[in-house]
Amino acid sequence: MENNLKNITAKFRIVGTTNTILPFGNGHINDTYLVTTVGEKNPNYILQRKNHNIFKDIPAMVQNIVRVTDHIRNKLEDQTISNPENKVITHIKTTDDLYYYRDKQGNYWVLFLFIAGCKSYEKIENPSQAFMAGKAFGIFQNQLADLPGEPLTETIKDFHNIQFRLANFEKAIMVNFQNRILKAKNEIQYAQSLADEMNTLLNAQKDGLIPERITHNDTKINNILFDKDDNILCVIDLDTVMPGLVHYDFGDAIRTAACTTEEDETNLSLISLNTAIFDAFAKGFLGETKNTLSKDEIKLLPHSAKFMAYIMGLRFLTDYIEGDVYYKIKHPEHNLERAKAQFKLVQEIENKMAELNAIISRYLN
Ligand code: ADP
Ligand code: GN1
Ligand code: MG
Questions:
Q1: Measured distance CA(344)–CA(151) in Å, rounded
Q2: Residue 44: is it exposed, middle or buried by C-beta count within 10 angstroms (0-12/13-18/19+)?
Q3: pLDDT over threshold 80, residue 31
Q4: Which of 195, 232, 293, 329 has its Cβ near the most Cβ atoms within 10 Å?
Q5: 28 lines ligand 2 (CB under 6 A)
C-alpha cells in the first residue's frame, strides 16, 4: 500500500522526495493521507483519494475547487495578506498538467499543500474559538459572493434537499436490510413526525424569501484550520462547495460546534446545545455577513441548526436501514447511534429555540 501511495504521489509535481505517507484525519467519505518529504525546508502534503461512488464527476468537482481556491487566492493577494498559502488550500498539478490523477483501478487522487503548524478541532472548547469559527465561515461566504463565471457544478445533486432525503429514507425502509427497521422503530417514527416542519427552508426559498448563494455545505467544525494561538488559517474540505442556502453552513457549523458532545455520543443525556457557543459563533458569522444577508435569512438561522441536525440524523438513519452503504462506520450500530445522537440534539435545539431566537433577533435591526 505504502509503495502504491508513493507511486501515486510521484505523479504530482512535489518539491523534494517523499518520506512517509500515513492515514490522516477523521473523514467519513474520502481517504486522507499526510505525505511528509525529506528535508526541513520542503513542504509536506495531503494526499486524498476522492470517493467516486459518492462524487459522480470528480473532474468537475476538482474544477470547482480550483476555481474557488484561485478566486480566494487572488483576493488574498490583492489585499497583500501575508502567507496566503496558509489561508487557502493550494492544489498541486500532476506531471500531465491536471489537478487530479486517475489510477488504473479508476480511483481519483488529489494532492495539496499541508498547512504547517495548524490544528483542527473535533470539538470546540470555548466561546472564543466559536467566535473565530463563525468569522471563518462568514469570511468564506463573503469571499465567494462574487465568484465570476458559470454556476459551480452541483457535486452531489440535491445534497441538502430535504424532499430528496425523505424520499431516500422511505426507499430505505422498503429495502430494510437485515430487518433493521425493527431496531430503528423509534427513530423512524421520530423522523416521520418532524418531516413536514423540515420543509420550512425549501418553502421560504420557493416563496422567494431566501436566495441561493455559494455555500460550503460541510461546515463541520473540523473543516477549519486554526494556528497555534487559535487564529483562523483557512476553511478546508471544499468537495461540496456549490450553490446552496446560507442556512446549510450556519446550521451544520452549529450542529457540530455548539453540541456538547461529538456527533456519535451514545450517552444521550450528555447531548445538549451550548447557547454560549451558539451566541459566539453567531457573533463571528454575522459580524462578517449581516450586511449581505436579508432579514428573512437571519430570522431562519436558529431553525437552520435544528434542520441540519435533523437532516444528518435522517441520513445516518437511512444509511443504517439500507445496510451502511454510504458512511464509513467503526462498528455495526454506528450509523444508528449517530442518528440517535442527532435526533437528541434536534430535541435539545427545540427546547432552547426561544433563547436562540432572542440571540439572533439582536441582528435584525
Ligand atoms: P474529509 O473530507 O475526509 O473530512 P478533509 O479535507 O477535511 O477530509 O481532511 C481531513 C483532515 O485533515 C482535516 O480535518 C484536517 O485536520 C486535515 N487537513 C486537511 N487539509 C489539510 C491541510 N491542507 N493542511 C493541514 N491539515 C489538513
Ligand atoms: C460527511 O467527509 P466528511 O466527514 O467531512 C458528509 C457530510 C456530513 C458528515 C457527517 C459528502 O462529511 O455531509 O455532514 O459526514 N459528507 C458527504 O459527519 O456526504
Ligand atoms: Mg473534513
A1: 36
A2: middle
A3: yes
A4: 293
A5: yes
Q: What is the pLDDT of residues 315-353, one digit of tens each?
A: 999 999 999 999 999 999 999 999 999 999 999 999 999
Beta bridge partners of 232: 226
Nearest atom of ligand 1 to the alpha carbon of 237? 6
pLDDT of residue 2: 62
Contacts for 178-187: CB closer than 8 Å, 24+ residues apart: 178/323, 180/320, 180/321, 180/323, 180/336, 181/321, 183/336, 184/317, 184/320, 184/321, 184/336, 184/339, 187/313, 187/317, 187/336, 187/339, 187/340, 187/343
The C-alpha atoms of residue 10 and residue 184 are separated, in whole angstroms, by 46
Q: How much is the pLDDT for 291?
A: 94
Take residue 71 and report the three cell numbers written for it: 478566486
User: Among residues 18, 5, 350, 82, which one has the least CA distance to residue 190?
Assistant: 350
pTM: 0.97
Query: How far does residue 30's CA lie from ligand 3's centre (Å)?
Result: 9
Q: Which amino acid is at 216?
A: H
Q: How far apart are CA 144 and CA 72, in angstroms?
A: 7
CA distance 251 to 119: 22
CA of 175 to the centre of ligand 1 (A): 34
Q: What is the pLDDT of residue 1?
A: 64
Percent of the chain with pLDDT over 90: 95
218, 237 in Cβ contact below 8 A? Answer: yes
Atom 23 (ligand 1): residue with closest C-alpha? 114
Instruction: Give residue ranges with CB within 6 A of ligand 1.
Output: 24-25, 27, 29-30, 32, 46, 89, 112-115, 118, 120, 222-223, 225, 236-237
Structure-block grid coordinates of residue 235: 476553511
> SS3 helix, strand, coil % of the chain, rounded to 5?
50, 15, 40
Contact criterion met (CB below 8 Å) for 97 and 66: no
